[in-house]
Amino acid sequence: MFIPPHSFERLMPTFPRQGAASTQWQLSSPKDNKPVLLPFSSRPVIPVVFLPGVMATNLCKTSGKGKVVWEPPNMDSKGLGHLVKTLLKYLFKSSARRQEELNPNDSEVFYKGQVYPKQWTAEPVDNLYARGWGSVMRTAYHPIMEDLQIKLNAAAVQQNDSGSWWKKDALGRFSHPELPAPVTEEEVFALSKYRFDVWGGGYNWLQSNVDSAIDIINWLETELPRYYNLNGMPLLAKTKEGKIPIILVTHSMGGLVARSISELLQPESSLGAVDFAQKQLTTSARTIDVIGINHIAMPAEGAPKLYMHMRSGYPAPSGLILSRNSADFVAVSYRIKSTFELLPFRTYDNGKPWLFISENCKKCQFTACGHNRLSGAPSKSLELPKNGDAVTEIYKATHAFGLIPNHNLHLVYPYIRKEKVTEAQLKDARKEINENIDNAAFFQAILAEHYHHLSYIYWKNEGKSEKSPHTAENDEDYFSSGPVVWKGHAAYPEQPQTMPESTPRNPLRDYGIGLMIHGWEPETNGISDHRPRWSICDGFVPGDGTVDEVSGSAPRKIKLATMVTAHHKNLEPVRIHIAREGQQKVDSYSHQDVCNDQSVQWFSCYAIAKIVAKNVANIPTFFKKN
């Protein structure tokens, strides 16, 4: 039975670490006769675990005193001091130092990052640390985690704001035939049968996503019973099979970790038998059961943007911390298995080419080519992969346009001068890189067809921001690297292997910022027009700046997945599927900030309501509807 809003004053209970509920309040004036509702939380708990994207988990060293080696700065006033300190530290940090600190074999999750609970929590901050909130980037993810903690638990007692979210922003406002069904009162009542605690599932993103999935499973199976153990009181919900039901909410690469978790929990798991996984499940009997997954901005079939980072680093100012150029990126990432697992899958865009070596485009002048984005790649170009095999034609390729070409292989040894790197060392580096690529390809082949049967997926096909919706100049651009194009000053080669070799007389200069030039610098001032040069161009298809719509929308191939998307108003209206409160978005957002958008937060609540409703018959509760 639903209680009419505004007819009572609701006091939020406090939940100590073991989960028992208590409430504190001040005695009111005798003239105040408004009823006070004290919810008694005997509802079984369903944990909601948030898995962040790559580089959004805090890391520390496993050895020594556990020095923090990665804690992305939080972009708000509370994180300003840490931001300035981090920028100054990374401004003078060499590639060799970055490689030494970000070592996959000497790193683990750091759980004591920034946590500033807002007034809503009614929980000790120790609770949030115990549930892993300190492991994830605060400004990127705590807002959506807070929103879920409030709204999912407010379903038990309707409130003017949080309790009525399902009516306020219901999908029933839309008439688009492709929209999923709106939330119903029955589904909200199903939510009210349970209590939801949001957990932060940070993972070591320097290792394979398979190892991260194994770590998360082991962590949950250990920490959940420990956290909720109150003198044997059964606080955790259990399925009829006796397992703890888990709901996963993911951002970016966290989606690949979640799909790996789902696959590993299958009776006959293909990922469980891979020989490149360094971790093992602690027990053979699984005690958790993933009952549904909500994916946000997931690179479902990889992202060509990663190829760009390998060849050019990140643009400023974020590049100062992430990677200033290819030297920084290659030095760190060549041994990070998850890096190669994020490259475009063999199934990306059904195996069509996504890397182009083209003749010069005079309109773009070697900058981001904006005039031709929506119409596709340039008409005259060498297209790779030609035969749908990016592993051979791009990732393992040694030619100038390969992922890590021969002329960049020395970057694996940033502490050795280029001319001092031996042939044996280069051979060892190539062998390790190729092994990581082979393992990643095997991982991708397994994961390509695996999605949880209850998958709710939010992706984005954004255009430009409000700053300048009709011109390419001075505009913050949210087009993503679907096709990646090397624009050439000279005619493109018929085969990448026909590129001139780098020799002392005619060196190939790779500047590590997406620019390659053949030949010596001219003796006179200015640039010699006859020297062959190629410059990387970004942004051909809508997306969020990182994940393009090709990869983001790929799960539509799986009929069981529920897909929605939001985008900016300067793209074609036919692309609209959902936007908050029946309107298209007004403000744009980047890949990293997507979880702070209200439409995304609302859809996560929607997804969880649907997941719970479809599982309620298998998760016993003492509640009965009046």
Structure summarized in a few sentences:
With 626 residues, this protein is of the alpha/beta class. It is 25% helix and 12% strand. The protein has 3 domains: 265 residues, Rossmann fold, CATH 3.40.50.1820; 51 residues, no CATH class; 210 residues, no CATH class.
Task: Walk me through what this model shows.
With 626 residues, this protein is of the alpha/beta class. The protein has three domains: 46-54 and 140-301 and 450-463 and 547-626, Alpha/Beta hydrolase fold, catalytic domain (Rossmann fold), CATH 3.40.50.1820; 59-109, no CATH class; 306-447 and 470-537, no CATH class. It has helices at 80-91, 95-101, 125-130, 138-154, 165-168, 185-192, 209-227, 254-264, 305-312, 326-333, 337-341, 390-395, 423-447, 549-552, 598-615; strands spanning 9-10, 36-37, 45-51, 59-60, 68-70, 108-109, 195-200, 244-251, 288-296, 355-359, 381-384, 455-460, 484-488, 508-510, 515-518, 533-537, 562-566. Strands 7-3-8-9-12-17 form a six-stranded parallel beta sheet, with helices on both faces. A hairpin with a 4-residue loop joins strand 14 (508-510) and strand 15 (515-518). The longest helix is centred in the C-terminal third of the chain and has 25 residues, at 423-447. It is globular, with a radius of gyration of 26 Å.
